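Thread: Newbie trying to understand structure tokens

Hi all, I'm a second-year student working on a class project, and my supervisor (Dr. K.) asked me to get a predicted structure for one chain before our next meeting. I've only ever worked with sequences, so writing a 3D structure as a token string is new to me. If someone could post the tokens and maybe explain what I'm looking at, I'd be very grateful. Here's the chain:
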Amino acid sequence: MKRKKLWLIPAVLALALLCACGATQNAPSEPEENAEELSAETVNADSQEGEIVMDGLTLTNEWDKVFPQSDKVNHRKVTFHNRYGITLAADLYEPKDAQGKLPAIAVSGPFGAVKEQSSGLYAQIMAERGFLTIAFDPSYTGESGGEPRYVASPDINTEDFCAAVDFLSVQDNVDPEKIGIIGICGWGGMAVNAAAIDTRIKATVASTMYDMSRIAANGYFDANTEDDRYNARVALNAQRTEDYKNGTYQLAGGVVDPLPDDAPYFVKDYYADYKTERGYHPRSLNSNGGWNTTSSLSLMNMPLLAYASEIRSPVLLIHGEKAHSRYFSETAYEKLTSGAYADNKELMIIPDAVHTDLYDRTDIIPFDKIETFFKDALG
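---
Reply by user tm_fold:
Sure, no problem. This is what the structure looks like when written as tokens:
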């Protein structure tokens, strides 16, 4: 594989921000111009038809998901804030006619997706199975707040999961001792990282996981050398200077479009998900202009899974047998089982599945297993 082609590395090491992706639906459109300058927090006008304003965020009040709405659950918009003061937007799903305090699950991912995609699908299906769930947009993305737009941060994005637990813990119909999380793709790594710091998280599922810090530093299949990293830092820091000079932030580009004939199969899989009716969403970074290019810098400098071996609560990793990213879960599983708390850790490999199959293929995603895992772990 040639590492320097534009379909693989759209803006130096911003490949890490391009290639960990999610699932959606709608019609493809051109990338948004100056999308990085738009902020949900600055849109405080009176509500328009189909919109609501909550905590300074303008939220869509219509069903704009890429999956059909279930008649088995109630759905509503909610907001909460993290300890950095950023207000996050979420969709809350709860089983109809549910009574008493429920076990709860917070869901996010994939990396560069929005809650109207895979995370919402997972959340709605788990609500059908008896859990109160939220699917949230991470800081700086989707309908959530934060400036500048489209920034990724290993610390803030881990905190987003912990902030979701804050929110769930104080809901009248949630048992605060029965809260779990699901991270998909790049947010799988964030979820495991959150489980290492937040003891309120009683169970974690990471589906088709990416370790974003590893790929940002090492590239695909750990192919980058020290010189590669140095050259990437030089280029990204030069971009910081340009961004400051220009007063805007360059975007790395979403999933490549048009798709080159010689693109790797997994890039073609991403295209089929983000750029077609199957997975396109107008707020999805990967469907449009992508992440802030210099976000790679902080990811390169922090190993997300440093304390994974100290997680005492149950963790289930799910990955496709034929996924190019399978090695992320395999390595994570080795770390999770290298300490004294290995007995409640599990790696589940889905036969013949590729990376994006676990975004939205409800015939392949092992929801029965996920349900059993959480019911056993949360009680």
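A couple of things are worth pointing out once you decode it. The CA atoms of residues 255 and 270 lie 7 Å apart. The domain at 12-378 is CATH 3.40.50.1820 (Rossmann fold). Feel free to ask follow-ups in this thread.
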